């Protein structure tokens, strides 16, 4: 259960209305509820609404208790992260087409601090592009997976030297959970 900050009634938080649009009676939100809340809020703006798969990925990124759902605190955290990703996407969508290409993707991910090889950027672009265009929803899905995989790798890179040991089961759990 996620609790609001002390001294600040949760129902007075401006985010509460968006959260409650998709939350169940127990104040938890699943992927369908998140999709509804983000659509109701108009967060995606001129971009197409988030897919159910992207909403599942967003929940899994913040699902610290592995319930498959999120509370209000996680929703607020997600809102902040999504805002940063949206700002970065718009910054690199220089032609305002609603999509970015592989070069713009590379620049956007570099702005987040990722130092990826051209081969990795190419693989990511092939996974998330439709033709040569990467839409906002796909960019968010890419960012969620990249963040989750990086966090998982860092946790296993005990020497902090860019290499880690994985058992097969550990690898499967890491890659399928993000």
How does this model look, in words?
With 178 residues, the protein is an all-alpha fold. The protein is built from 8 helices and 2 strands. Strands 1-2 form a two-stranded antiparallel ribbon. Helix 4 crosses helix 5. It starts with 15 loop residues before the first helix and ends with a helix. The N terminus is likely disordered.
Backbone CA Rg: 17 Å
Instruction: Calculate the mean pLDDT score and round it.
Output: 88
Number of helical segments? 8
Helix content: 55-70%
**Main pleated sheet:** 2 strands, antiparallel
Record field, number of beta strands: 2
Kindly report the spatial arrangement of strands forming the biggest sheet.
1-2
* Portion in strands: under 5%
Instruction: Choose one word for the global shape.
Output: globular
CA-CA gap between termini:
22 Å
Oligomer: single chain
User: Could you spell the SSE succession in H and E letters?
Assistant: HHHHEHHEHH
Which secondary-structure class do the elements indicate?
A: mainly alpha
| Low-confidence segments | 1-7
Topology:
Elements: H1 16-20, H2 31-41, H3 52-62, H4 72-92, E1 99-100, H5 102-111, H6 118-128, E2 134-135, H7 136-156, H8 168-176
Antiparallel strand pairs: 1-2
Q: Which descriptors would you attach to this protein?
A:
178 residues; mainly alpha; two-stranded antiparallel ribbon; 8 helices; 2% strand; globular; disordered N terminus
């Amino acid at each position: 259960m996620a609790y609001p900050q002390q001294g600040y009634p949760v129902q007075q938080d401006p985010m509460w209305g968006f959260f409650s649009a998709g939350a169940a009676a127990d104040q938890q939100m699943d992927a369908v509820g998140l999709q509804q809340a983000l659509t109701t809020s108009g967060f995606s703006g001129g971009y197409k609404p988030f897919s159910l798969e992207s909403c599942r990925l967003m929940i899994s990124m913040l699902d610290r208790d592995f319930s498959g759902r999120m509370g209000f605190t996680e929703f607020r955290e997600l809102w902040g992260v999504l805002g940063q990703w949206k700002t970065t996407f718009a910054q690199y969508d220089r032609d305002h087409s609603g999509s970015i290409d592989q070069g713009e993707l590379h620049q956007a991910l570099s702005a987040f601090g990722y130092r990826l090889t051209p081969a990795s950027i190419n693989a990511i672009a092939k996974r998330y592009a439709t033709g040569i265009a990467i839409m906002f929803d796909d960019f968010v899905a890419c960012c969620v997976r990249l963040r989750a995989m990086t966090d998982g790798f860092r946790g296993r890179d005990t020497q902090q030297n860019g290499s880690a040991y994985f058992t097969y089961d550990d690898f499967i759990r890491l890659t399928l959970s993000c």
